[in-house]
Amino acid sequence: MKQATDSGVYMLRGFCNSQAGQDKTLCVKYSMVYKFRIRVLQEGYQIWNEHNSTVHSSMEALLFYHHLFPIRDGTYTLRFDPDSGGAVLCVTHRCQILKFRVVASMTADNRREFGFHHLPTVPKFGSLEEFIVHHHKNPIRGSSADGDIILKMPFQLVPRCQQELDFQQISLDAAIFTTGSVAAVSNKVARMRSGNFLVLRRSQQPLLQQPGESESTDSSAAAGAGVEHSLVVRDDHGSVKTFRIVERDTDLSFRPQKTFTLAERPELVTDRIEKMVHFLCIASKFLSPEITLLVKP
């Protein structure tokens, strides 16, 4: 932290399971390194000093709050709410951050609509983008004390939240997940059409050391070694290709508690294997130039 050059850089201590005996602390770099103890209550998480009485439902919500505050009135952002499956709209207004729950409901013709949970009479919209644009022009009717609230400046782009919501709607056919040996699954995929695939899921066993990797006696490295799953695909030329998806525990006491990394393209990391597969189904040629599109068998 002392070597950090930018103000606002922060680190967390005591939130990994391996640090269970340490105080939970938020360290922030400004002209010096400031340390804030985090109190874990039954209701949630709170910065433990006389200036912060707000209790946040999760550690993610606490960090999100302090990223956003203080910024000028009308600055807003959306964050995905895993508990409700919807979103939370956070808006700065009169030196406070107001939060509004946004719910996604289904219409009679099986389309999603977005609207405020506490204002059922306000119009609903087919996407979060339409919802946000509307409230740039039309005020959100707050309480008499709050007054009307107008959205002015996004702190975080809406598509990020939209993407999280879309991922929650993924319902992959259980038939794409299988067990057994790589050879047996490869033989099965070889009889399918080009683009078809299966995901070979492994039980919780240590990841084998790859050739060329040095051995390590570090217990934390061993804990993070992970479990290797296989994505077996028939490419456009009829050949069967195998890609490795590595599942690791993050050792965090809050989400995400697992990550999934595509070994051949380590820049792709998700917190669910379903997200990984969904992305690869819509990202043409991401895996290989010889694989145009993944198709569910």
Automatic annotation (TrEMBL):
InterPro entries xrefs: SH2_dom_sf (IPR036860)
The domain of life is Eukaryota
Protein name according to UniProt: SH2 domain-containing protein
| Source organism per UniProt | Macrostomum lignano
